[in-house]
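During the first year of the project, the team set up a workflow for recording each protein of interest as an amino acid sequence followed immediately by a discrete structure-token representation. This format lets reviewers and collaborators read both layers of information side by side without switching files. As required by the reporting guidelines, we include two representative entries from the current panel. The first entry is reproduced here exactly as it appears in our internal archive.
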Amino acid sequence: MRLRASIGAGLLALIMLLLALRLAKLQVLDHDYYRGLALQQQTIRRALAGRRGNIYDSRGRLLATSVRRWSVFVDPSQMQQPAVRRATAVVLAHVLKMDARALLEKLHGPGRFAWIRRQIPDADAERVRRLGLPGIHLEREYDRHYPTGQLCAHVVGFTDVDGRGLGGIELELDRILRSSPGRELVLCDVARRVVRSAGDEPLLEPADGYDVYLTIDACVQNIARKELLSTVKQYAPEAAWAIVLDTRTGALLADVDWPLFDPEEPGRSSPADLKDRIVTDAYEFGSVMKPLAAAAALEAGLVTPQSTFYCHRGAWKVGRRTIHDVHPYGTLTVSEIIAKSSNIGIGQIGLLLGPERFYQSQRRFGLGEPTGIHIPGEISGIIRPLRLWTRDSVISVAFGQEIATTPISVAFAFAALANGGVLLRPQIVSRIVESGSGQSVYEWSGPQVRWRAVSEHTAGLVLQMMQRVVEEGTGQRAKLKEYAVAGKTGTASLLKPDGRGYSDSRYLSSFVGTAPADSPRVLVLVSLKAPRKGSYYGGSVAAPACGQILRQTLKYLKVPPRPAGMDLAEARR
């Protein structure tokens, strides 16, 4: 019995020793391995979303921000039984207002992750949480929100569901606005449902995006939008736009493009309506461009405002081509040619300039190349190479044909006349700051001069002619009691859809104006593409809206009223 007891005790001691060694191996030698295995089973590494930067207008009004939302996803591996999947699909589809069959397909999906519904309301998220469905989880995300709705949609742009910029400033400055995600470790139960955080601090803190301040003023934007929509309602164009500039600085104060779209639901609009036409489309602006031809001739010393040209009673035959005016004129001065918008008169001025001088003058006004404004999709416009210019070219370009430019290029070319002949670089971003500290990482230092287009004297003479357009010429419907306005009308035939010749029923109706004329502060360009109701002349269609935008904007900026007081006698002589 003693022998048996000794053997039994020895075996038991051996077994205990082996267990002790095994436990020592598990808890000491293999500790890190099994601890890691336990962590894999009990914890989840979860991404922490950072906040995308806000976008503000020039006065700190919020144009775009990000709000926290819950998103629903499924881990199909936690839902093996077909009956459970079907029941889950039915219940969840009811809560989220989804199609149960489509939802069931997601529950059958491969892998361990599939989105069910992104960025749902908090009330719906709470209903999902209370259901406690196996394999169904909630995750925090940021949803992009635009407090001003459609107001600044084209210039601010929009993002996709993952917060990536797809248009406007959202796209242009995506790398600045975008956040950097962080990571955290969370404990989960056997169903892989999150219980709590596994640590006091995240593994990696998310970094929020930078906040961006624009030169756009939401009040000026609203003024331009209201007037443009009223004009659109009256004339029913295919498209329309309005641009408002600060002539002294080159700051873009308003950029309105119609048709409008909802930046929170861009998928409901066509791709054509999502683009910002002031930079993406080029047109022949017609008679709007005549003051630029006059400026080139004045700058070259070829004419004065009082130089006269015979306008052939409305029909001028040049080779095989006949140039027409809307009304028959005899002899007109250069100033009268601009005021009455004579194609024949300005065509003769173009011939005086000749191809090379005229081509170079158009380039000095920045035409035929991008302005460099921070709006995505800007094109350069079209100016034919100098070697292709003919006698017909200088005539056509003088009254705005055979040269296609973007609306923003036209606006800044005239802004050069308004600020004394200097071509400025457009500005739309005024400041970029760290969202947390508010510390500026970029601040606009003020006007940036590209080059001088014409002398200050020439610019002043052309502004006098443009004031006469409004006082007694084709732009009288832009005339204001409070402020003297200088402007120019344009009614340009649009190309046929096949590009072969000009349409006789579709026009680009435009007006560009600046005020106060003696010391311009604001410049406005309004254009309607193919008006389908009522008149189509720029002086009737676009000039009234331009005048009202100028009047309301100058009052908003507290510019003292300055009625027309410029002596036009010199311009008439």
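The second entry, processed by the same pipeline in the following quarter, appears below.
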Amino acid sequence: MVAEVGLGRVGVVMGLEVSRLARNSADWHRLLEICALSNTLILDEDGVYDPSHFNDRLLLGLKGTMSEAELHLLRARLLGGQLNKARRGELWIRPPIGYVFEPRECSLILDPDEQIQEVVRLLFETFRRTGSALKVVRYFDAKGIGWPHRIVGGIRAGEIVFSPLEHHDVLRTLHNPRYTGAFVFGRTRAAKIPIGGSPRYRRLPRQEWKVFLPNSFPSYLSWEQYEANQETLRANARGYGYDRRRSPAREGTALLQGLVLCGKCGDRMTVRYYVRKGQPLPIYVCQRRAIESAKLPCQVIPGSGLDEIVSRLVLEAVSPASLEIAMEVFEELRARSAEIHRLQRVQLQRVREEVELAQRQFMLVRPENRLVADSLERRWNEKLTELSKAEEEYARALKADDPELSPAARERIHSLVSDLPRVWNDACTPARERKRILRLLIEDVTLSRDREIHLHIRWKGGATTSLDQPLPLSAPELRRTSATVVELVRALATEQTDHQIAQTLNDRWLRTGTAQRFTRLRVRRIRQAYGIRSLAQHMREAGWHTTAEISAQLHIHPQTLKRHAREGVLNAQRVNDKGEILFAPFDGQPPKPLQGKRLRDRRRYPKLATHVRNEVQYEA
């Protein structure tokens, strides 16, 4: 009890035990300073004190220090008793979902409700299979499975209700080591922050836990599985930090996403995508330092060829063990489907029990109590509606996902799993699953680029593999006609025209660099690009003559020569699609059928010689 009395200019603070105010030395001494400045006396059962006097202030300070020390000792004794009880494993801590406290044994036991046990086990199994807490939430939502929550306050305290699973429920369950059957205490440490003075809790590493008693009660998973789950969660969390060197597997097509290190600076390389012919192709880019310093990226490496090389190495590494897992995969699929249907049946059974309870309550009410009867009847009807809906959902789930597979389906699964390369390259296999398989075997991949790409793979266990890959072709090189086709055109040009060469190439199922059929114009462009001479040029070098030259030599009209060429009198050959023909050279006199024809043409066309001479000069 404290009272304030004013005596003129002097105030008095009276209390039965003034030292009880001194739970904090800083606050106590601040009170003494205020009383000294305002000439206020402090009075308790031992006497009257004047804070403005040194001796009184010293005595009051000692009393405050002793009071603070007393409070500290009381708190230390309480915490010591709590810690001693925790070291014996007898300290009561609110049990997590899936456990109940057994007072007689002062320990935890599995929840007697089998549905709760199976739902908790399904959560751990789903996370082991998917490796993502969000995937677990989506799986429970897709299957219509609720997560149990225990009400801790109110008139319904201790009751279990099922509601949709949320992300924080999954994380809280996965981070709780008590599901391994271990009694733990002191996993966090509290420290007050300067602003506001509210405590902030920090998780301690395993070595700093105050109490750790393994195998204290039944478990849902082993300690090794718990450690594996924590490592998976840490790997997933690295995808959101500054140095995301070990980010979780995503859905993109980049096989080495999250595993690639730059061979020049050592930073993690990110992934970009570009679309070619409707397909996204990856590019690995080292750009962190470029972003910070506004420079060009350290390295930019196309990833299509690299992903294929790593895929081949992984298949070679795991192919000997692929046959052993064929039926194991099938049995896991069957057991997983059967477990889901069993949980759905248990959930349906719980709804039926609630309907029966509502029915019994309605039957027990007195008929004259209509207000209560109407309320119970309404509740009974609501439960019947929920039961009907649950039965429809269960029937729909059975029809959509039959746990029993036919022998033909069993054989297809066996053949598919036994051929691991086909499973790996199957379009139905998600890219995320390929990456998860890859992360089980490969620690990281280092890439460097100069005149070629250097690939350094570090496997789990310390083994390494180094490969050199030539640089990918540029866009012009990808569209360029192959060297084989060019050489074939060079060889055919000595005997065929451009149109004939195009037909020959198409008959051999050869295509251009852009995968198109050959035409006369495309063949001519290839000749011009590579300096290949045409058939006419080859024949001119061999001594063949044009129509104008032969006409001037024999004094015969060009149309007549062409007619004789068609009739086979003269040896001539068409050299292009414009109708130009060349005549084979002949020694001595021309053929006899041309002798009389030549004299008649000279008499009939006296200017023929001049015309032919001018035409020859024009062509030259």
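For the second entry, the following points were noted during internal review. Residues 1-8, 595-620 have pLDDT under 50 and may be disordered. The CA atoms of residues 442 and 459 lie 4 Å apart. Both points are flagged for discussion at the upcoming steering committee meeting.
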